[in-house]
Amino acid sequence: MEFLIKNARLTGDNETLLKDILITNKKITAIGTDLSVSVEDVIDVKGKLVTPGLIDVHVHLREPGFEYKETIETGTAAAARGGFTTICAMPNVNPAPDSVEKMQNIKSLISKNAKVKVKQYAPITELLTSDRLTDQKALINAGAFAFTNDGVGVQTAATMYLAMKEAAQNNISIVAHTEDDSLLFDNGVMHEGKRNKELNLPGMSQLTESTQIARDVLLAEATGVHYHICHVSAKESVRIIRDAKKAGIKVTAEVTPHHLLLSEEDILSDNSLFKMNPPLRSRADQEALLEGLLDGTIDMIATDHAPHSDEEKQGSMIGSPFGIIGSETAFSLLYTNLVIPGKVTLDQLVKWLTLKPAEIFNMKTGRLEIGAPADLACFDLQNEKEISKEMLHSKSSNTPFIGWKVYGDTYFTIVDGQVVYQEEN
């Protein structure tokens, strides 16, 4: 199959110069101005932005076990709707893929139902909550992308140390949701700051996150493992990661769109759509996260797409599950609220969502260049849209961004030369 994308705006040098992109047999085979080729199909994007397909190293697809929230089919459709062509699925499903058989089962479901490329994480420990390490070599051979107990922190330092030591030998990454349960008090539901006191809701200290990061970076230094930190939320965490990088420790980190764009001050009432873990923290934390992105302390943006049913997300934060969806709105929200006001450049945003995760996790995707896989996304930067439940392809709609007006909505998404999402006119 061969087709041509005409008049695309690319990031980087000469952003105002429109380019054509030729795709042949799942690869990008030419990029130039006014390419003169004979092809059956031509897509004229008329100056819209074309980027490498976005990469999200942190999503929850909920299948198997929680299909009422999301499935591999609907979760990957949501990713395609947001311009993501590669996503990495967390293992906190039921059963968790902590054995070869369970990993093979999930990989089979992905092969049958995924609309984009999916890399599957395996748990660090059996059942995600035990101190019994999984068989890393066997799970790697079965297709594990990396190892994480996302959703819970590894509570015992010795367990994390042994897991890191083995992962270093296996040349694979340890990816951590950092949360020290011993510092969780009163079943906290939001950041322990000024707003939780005003709303009379139990708080969650930043110490639950930052103290475990401090422990883990020293363990990573001792073992030589690549240690990646999920959804950084606190200024203290940013400081620890910055110091660890200066010390030469192989640590990388991600931040979510919601932690970049919101703080505890945006929570005006006891609204479970604002309940997430880690929680939205102070304005100072929010500012430190953006500063960390800009100076390279934080390496990439990942959504932590976490679907829940409408019934689960009604009413109070108390008793409702943590998490919001993010696959479909990440780029447009970040473009509208960070690029347009001049806080970051468009080129920076695209790299945080493509090249940086590709480089760190050794992926072949994330690049718009000749010979690269034809994984592309196209965004409309000119026309404003309102985020609504009706536009979502996810099975769930648990997001506080409903009603926000954005630029940069997805026009189309292409995976291996095949259109997997196209905006409806």
Automatic annotation (TrEMBL):
An annotated Gene Ontology molecular function: zinc ion binding
Record's cofactor remark: Binds 2 Zn(2+) ions per subunit.
Enzyme class: hydrolase
Keyword set, alphabetical order: Hydrolase, Metal-binding, Pyrimidine biosynthesis, Zinc
GO cellular component: cytoplasm
Pathway(s): Pyrimidine metabolism; UMP biosynthesis via de novo pathway; (S)-dihydroorotate from bicarbonate: step 3/3
Protein name: Dihydroorotase
Source species: Marinilactibacillus piezotolerans
